[in-house]
Amino acid sequence: EAETAAPVEAAAAAPAGAALHIYGDGVTEERWFTMAELQALSGGYVEAEYYYRGKDPSRGHSLCQGLSVAYLLDQIELKEGAAKVAFRAADGYAMSYTMSNVRKSYVDETDLSKQLYMILAWMTDGEIRDDLTLVMGQNIAGEYNRTFWVKDVIALEVSL
User: Fold this and answer.
1) Cα distance between the two ends of the chain
2) In angstroms, rounded to a whole number, what is the distance separating the alpha carbons of residues 68 and 74?
3) Number of Cβ atoms within 10 Å of the Cβ of 100
4) Are 85 and 160 in contact (CB under 8 A)?
5) HEC assignment per residue over 92-106
6) What is the pTM of this model?
7) Helix, strand, coil % (nearest 5) of the chain?
8) What sign does the dihedral 97-128-9-148 (CA atoms) show?
9) What value, to the nearest 5°, has the Cα angle with vertex 112 and ends 106 and 116?
10) What is the pLDDT of residues 6-28, one digit of tens each?
11) How far is residue 20 from each of residues 10, 13, 153, 157, measured CA to CA in Å?
12) Residue 81 CA to chain centroid, in angstroms?
């Protein structure tokens, strides 16, 4: 289940050009990635239409391009027992997900044959962005999933 993560003190100063910081007691060493480095991880590249339900707009499809969060985490060394990932936005907002939620496939109620994955998207609603948005499908048909998306993600905190 998703839960709002507790705020943390500001992370160490980011290296020039850094777009994403991965840190926490669930990783053996913290890592910084530029947007170009994330986009170069082609094995985890995802381009898909993500169906969403939310408040405004209430429902629709968003064409997204990004990187599978599970694939990204597989590129760094996680500690045994790493259990949660908090997605932290530039404004301090954060949502936390279990590792099983990060690695599972999600559905699209308009096409139940689709398997959608949790991604960090640099393109949403068909527009290339200079920041990252956490995007995922629905756990079950009818779920209001857009509330789980996190805009302007700057850090992943992996915890035990």
Assistant:
1) 16
2) 10
3) 8
4) no
5) CCEEEEEHHHHHCEE
6) 0.90
7) 15, 45, 40
8) negative
9) 30
10) 655 545 577 888 999 999 999 99
11) 14, 12, 7, 11
12) 20
Nearest to 75 by CA among 33, 130, 126: 33
Q: What is the pLDDT of residues 28-47, one digit of tens each?
A: 999 999 999 999 999 999 99
**Residues contacting residue 156 through CB under 8 Å, at least 6 positions apart:** 20, 21, 22, 23, 24, 69, 72, 73, 85, 86, 87, 88
Which H or E run includes 70?
Answer: helix 69-74
- Provide CB contacts within 8 A for 89, sequence distance 6+: 150, 151, 152, 153, 154
Residue 99 has pLDDT above 60, yes or no: yes
Burial (CB < 10 A; 0-12, 13-18, 19+), residue 51, is buried
Eight-state DSSP code of residue 138:
B
Q: Is 147 helix (H, G, I), strand (E, B) or coil?
A: helix
